[in-house]
């Protein structure tokens, strides 16, 4: 137990350095945290940088000899502060990001709070140490396990292990492997209609979005509400399933009584 | 339903050229200007477009919707048989329900009612990153916000690298950026996906 406790300052020190570096590298992150709400807009950035300085100082004190008990207590106070801040964030400004280490737009979640609690626990354990981490011996090996736990709780690191893992799982078996079909999605038909000469011919008459659509043998039909000569009408497009040329799409404008008012494709074919 | 079928078959025949034209004059050329000249009033600069409304459906009396805009304005929107209704897919006017959000275009009548020509219910357009793909949905990250995208068999389509849309979603990849057009499930962070545009 003694060596385990003695080893903790090494991990805490490295974590605080990482966190401090992230804050120094991009102080603008302060605006995305709950700090502007807590201390005011103008003071958010200086406070954020001040926290980074404190983190760096405590980290260096923990990492470098000599080993004083006060260092571990300072780490406890800091991590208790983090935990409190994150809980405040989650409750008061739910959309605020954690601003813990590096760039992340993710709002404070349970993982960030769990990580702060884990840091608090390790700092608490470190207060019982009687020697420095450099004389901890085998206790340092346990840090590997703890470091993995910290990494898994860090949303900032997800893209290095979690996303590749999910990508690999999907390569083995894709949940939507069976979704391919011969049916043409409506959005594909709509795109063909929009790019066709028939659509250009009646574009100015159309008043609505797609009103109705149906399939009949080799054709898909798409209808729109239209106005023709001040009268209410329907524009109906016929899109062939087989022929993919834009000119193959036909259109007619039909009035309420079912009489065909206008059919520009006929004009094109009869010259 | 029969009348819908009759109308559809009539429209099908008209589009394919199996019906005669009403009058010879109907075959005359139709310049776009003629059509545009007939359109409704345009909005004054700096003023809200009178022919547009958006908001939450607070009440529905038959086909008249009471809609509260996000700017606090109240709109009355009349749906008719020729109003196009989009709710994940083109659908019928009875699908616009209380609690749904909508965008509407139409013609503002003198009595202040907007006669809707087209409405889009719960429509959403999001830029996202795909963070996970599972059987019960696609997990999306929209600038830090978690959004769950549900796949509706027969409706959800994917566009890969700008090629024509297909129903095959098996090329979706974790970590890719995507644009999603879908329909919110009101009051949740869940959407049904209409079209997802991504790369493969």
How do you describe this structure in short?
Chain A is α+β, with helices and mostly antiparallel strands. Helix content of chain A is 54%, strand content 15%.
What does this structure look like?
Chain A has 271 residues and is of the alpha+beta class. Chain A folds into two domains: 2-172; 186-270. In chain A, 54% of the residues lie in helices and 15% in strands. Chain A has ten helices and five strands. In chain A, α1 runs antiparallel to α3, α1 packs parallel to α6 and α3 (41-63) packs antiparallel against α4 (69-92). Mean pLDDT of chain A is 85; it is low at 266-271. Chain B is mainly β and 200 residues long. Chain B has two domains: 49-121, OB fold (Dihydrolipoamide Acetyltransferase, E2P); 123-198, OB fold (Dihydrolipoamide Acetyltransferase, E2P) (Beta Barrel). In chain B, strands 1-2-3-7-6 form a five-stranded mixed beta barrel. Chain B has a five-stranded mixed β-barrel with strand order 8-9-10-13-12. The longest helix of chain B has 14 residues, at 2-15. Chain B starts with a helix and ends with a strand. The model of chain B is unreliable at 24-39 (pLDDT under 50). Classes of the chains: A alpha+beta (271), B mainly beta (200). At the A-B interface, α7, α8, β1, β2 and β3 of A face α1, α2, β7 and β8 of B. Chain B: Keywords: Signal. Chain B: This is Cell wall protein. Chain B: It comes from Kribbella pratensis. Chain B: InterPro entries: TAT_signal.
């Amino acid at each position: 137990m003694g060596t385990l406790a003695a080893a903790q300052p090494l991990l805490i020190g490295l974590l605080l350095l990482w966190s401090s570096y992230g804050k120094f590298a991009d102080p603008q992150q302060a605006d995305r945290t709950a700090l502007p709400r807590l201390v005011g807009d103008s003071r958010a950035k200086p406070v954020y940088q001040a926290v980074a300085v404190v983190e760096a100082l405590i980290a260096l004190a923990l990492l470098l000899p000599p080993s004083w008990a006060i260092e571990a207590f300072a780490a406890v106070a800091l991590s208790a502060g983090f935990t409190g801040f994150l809980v405040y964030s989650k409750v008061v400004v739910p959309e605020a990001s954690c601003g813990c280490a590096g760039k992340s737009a993710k709002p404070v979640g349970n993982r960030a709070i769990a990580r702060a609690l884990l840091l608090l626990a390790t700092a608490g354990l470190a207060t019982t140490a009687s020697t420095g981490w450099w004389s901890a011996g085998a206790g340092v090996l346990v840090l590997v396990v703890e470091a993995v736990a910290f990494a898994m709780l860090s949303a900032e690191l997800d893209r290095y292990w979690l996303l590749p893992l999910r990508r690999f799982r999907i390569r083995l078996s894709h949940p939507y492997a069976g979704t391919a079909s011969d049916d043409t999605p409506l959005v594909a038909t709509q795109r063909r209609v929009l790019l066709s000469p028939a659509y250009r011919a009646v574009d100015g008459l159309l008043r609505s979005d797609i009103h109705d659509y149906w399939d009949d043998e080799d054709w898909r039909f798409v209808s729109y509400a239209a106005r023709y000569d001040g009268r209410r009408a329907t524009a109906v497009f016929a899109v062939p399933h087989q022929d993919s040329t834009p000119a193959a799409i036909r259109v007619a404008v039909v009035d309420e009584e079912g009489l065909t008012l206008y059919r520009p494709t006929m004009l094109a074919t009869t010259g | 339903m029969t009348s819908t079928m009759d109308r559809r078959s009539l429209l099908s025949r008209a589009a394919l050229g199996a019906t005669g034209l009403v009058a010879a004059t109907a075959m005359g050329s139709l310049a776009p200007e003629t059509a545009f000249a007939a359109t409704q009033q345009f909005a004054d600069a700096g003023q809200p477009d009178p022919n547009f409304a958006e908001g939450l459906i607070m009440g529905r009396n038959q086909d008249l919707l009471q809609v509260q805009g996000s700017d606090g304005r109240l709109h009355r929107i009349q749906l008719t048989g020729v109003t196009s209704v989009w709710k994940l897919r083109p659908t019928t006017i009875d699908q616009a329900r209380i609690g749904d959000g909508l965008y509407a275009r139409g013609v503002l009548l003198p009595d202040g009612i907007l006669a809707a020509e087209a409405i889009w219910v719960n429509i959403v357009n999001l830029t996202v990153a795909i963070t996970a793909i599972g059987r019960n949905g696609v997990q999306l990250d929209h600038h830090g916000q978690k959004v769950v995208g549900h796949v509706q068999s027969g409706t959800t389509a994917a566009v890969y690298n700008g090629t024509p849309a297909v129903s095959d979603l098996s090329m979706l990849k974790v970590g890719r950026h995507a644009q999603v057009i879908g329909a919110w499930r009101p009051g949740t962070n869940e959407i049904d996906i209409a079209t997802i545009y991504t790369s493969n």
